[in-house]
Amino acid sequence: MTDTPSDPAFADVFPRADEARWRALAEAALKGKPFESLISRTADGIEIQPLYQRLVGERPRPWRAGAGPWRVCARVDHTDPAQANALLLTDLENGADAIHIVFAGSVGAHGFGLPAGREALAVALDGVALEARVPIEVDLSAATKDSAGFLAGMIEARHIDPASYPVTFGFDPLGQMALGGGSPLAWSALAPLSAGLMKELAARGWRGRFAVADGRVVNAAGGTPGQELAFVVASAVAYLRALEDSGVSIADARAMIGFRLSADADEFAGVAKFRALRRLWGRVEQACGLAPAPIHIHAETSWRMMTRRDPWVNLLRATIATFSAGLGGADAISVLPFTQAIGLPDAFARRMARNAQLILIEESNLGRVADPAAGAGGFEALTEALCERAWALFQETEAAGGLYASLLSGAFQAKVAEARAARERDVARRKAPITGVSEFPNIHEAPVDVLAPIPTSASGPAQAIAFSALAPGRDAEPLERLRDAAEAGPGPKVFLANLGPLAAFGARAMFARNLFEAGGIEAIGGDGFDDETSLAAAYSASGATIACLCSSDAIYAGRASAAARALAQAGARQVWLAGRPGTAESDWRAAGVSGFIFAGCDVLAALERASAPA
């Protein structure tokens, strides 16, 4: 990567800008609003300033252990091993260069997954040229932990040197505990057993990553980037201790641990999160008296950002997530196909997931630059702030006795639950909009094909030691449930009672249509009405059961009460008004207005009320 002059020759053509001049222009544009209104905050409470200076002297850090782009992973998650094999071979023949084996019950299974057993694994990998040492990432569950040994044996049977084969075997007992809300044994008893399984593989000549510190369970449960990082570091430290206690040197133990993170559609936080993990683990290595060495990070696009409604938008979300993980330095990336939240993805959905990565690598050349965010003030500040938040939570967890103790007490889950509740509030008020669900819903969308519908969630086996689980969820679920209920039967329709000319009602009518259709309530209406008689007649002919007044504040002042009474007399069981009521609320409610919708209102609560049976 070459340096550019600090003052290019063409710089003199333009007047020099400085922060003081920019700030003066910004304050003038705010027209009296405080400058602080331009500052936003992340879910971790980190301030995002409107402008950052370049960090002079900051050099790129080569994140990945090897040169070149990340590995494009093909998921092996079909419940039928033969079908899983066919899909895998297609992926490998068309650009994927790594394998992600997802076993049933694992963090990444999402209702599917390869069954346990030597035979299932052999069928799923039939025809794969393992001699080419295709990297493998494994998603294990407690019930499928023996499959790690089966995989090792399958590779050994082909006379391949284990030390030369890159495998992340995926032992993650703490992640499984967090997901299932319990454990068959206390960590003091489980830790040496897990370390023993890893040592057995090492004794057979394997030098791959045996344990994986996996943050996806925190992301899927609604946690913040800082909480996900703290969980990952705390998990890795617990595995480090378990291996060291079993007689493995600290230097060898750290090489046995890999990492896994979620990547979502928040580009800035995503890049910073992946960059932050390497800094955080480097700090742990230094505390252990070790010189920091490259670590392996496997990224997967976020489950919680996926939608069942308008799933095509998931393609955009996944592309942004892949972009962020790639720029942040992920070594391997698995992209959830855009239909994953609906059911088992077919070959087309898998192709789109694969090509999203290939375009970024081959056409956008994202893998050719080491740490492209280096020196960018915004990314550097966010990375550093994330490190501080995550390290503080990690230290708090350690002070409480480690991650297992924190899970057992419920302290860590309580923090995630608080973050999830805040996120749910933002989604309900559309402060965190979901395109295709809470914003611009397509109420007449065509269904997409999947190989099998997503199964109903089933509870796992009872655990001897139980605590609160980090249950996975998707942001869109509450609104999707309303859509499902509306489509299951003759759901309500809303008549847009537009008053006056288009210029008066247009913006609010569009707002109301988007809001109601987000809950599956079809909006009917087009023209504006100049009198209440024609308004009531049009409502009666519409077949709608509820109505929503849409117009300007000036027209509301003169007509809202009369229009609400006319609609109520015409049979509307609810009359809504698009806009803030202000001082007229009591008068409008007395005239029959049931509720108000406006930017920042609780959309979910309004839709639940509007959808309620008469």
Helix proportion range: 40-55%
> Given the helix and strand composition, which structural class is it?
alpha/beta
Q: What's the end-to-end separation, in Å?
A: 67 Å
Q: What's the story with the biggest beta sheet? A: 8 strands, parallel, barrel
**What is the CATH architecture annotation of the largest domain?**
Alpha-Beta Barrel
Mean pLDDT: 93
Instruction: Compute the CA-based radius of gyration.
Output: 27 Å
Task: Report on the architecture of this protein.
The chain is of the alpha/beta class. 44% of the residues lie in helices and 12% in strands. It has 21 helices and 19 strands. It has an eight-stranded parallel beta barrel, surrounded by six helices. Strand 4, helix 3 and strand 5 (136-139) form a beta-alpha-beta unit. Helix 10 (267-287) packs across helix 13 (377-399). It starts with 18 loop residues before the first helix and ends with a helix. The model has no long low-confidence stretch (mean pLDDT 93).
Summarize the structure.
This protein is an alpha/beta fold and about 625 residues long.
Keywords:
614 residues, alpha/beta, TIM Barrel, Rossmann fold, 2 domains, 8-stranded parallel β-barrel, 5-stranded parallel beta sheet, 21 helices, 19 strands
SSE order and pairing:
Blueprint: H1 19-30, E1 40-41, E2 47-48, E3 71-76, H2 81-93, E4 98-102, H3 118-124, E5 136-139, H4 147-156, E6 167-171, H5 173-180, E7 182-183, H6 187-203, E8 209-214, H7 216-220, H8 225-245, H9 250-255, E9 257-263, H10 267-287, E10 297-301, H11 313-328, E11 332-334, E12 343-344, H12 347-363, H13 377-399, H14 403-409, H15 411-428, E13 452-453, E14 465-466, H16 477-488, E15 493-498, H17 502-517, E16 522-524, H18 532-542, E17 546-550, H19 553-569, E18 574-578, H20 585-591, E19 595-597, H21 603-611
Parallel strand pairs: 3-4, 3-11, 4-5, 5-6, 6-8, 8-9, 9-10, 10-11, 15-16, 15-17, 17-18, 18-19
Antiparallel strand pairs: 1-2, 7-14, 12-13
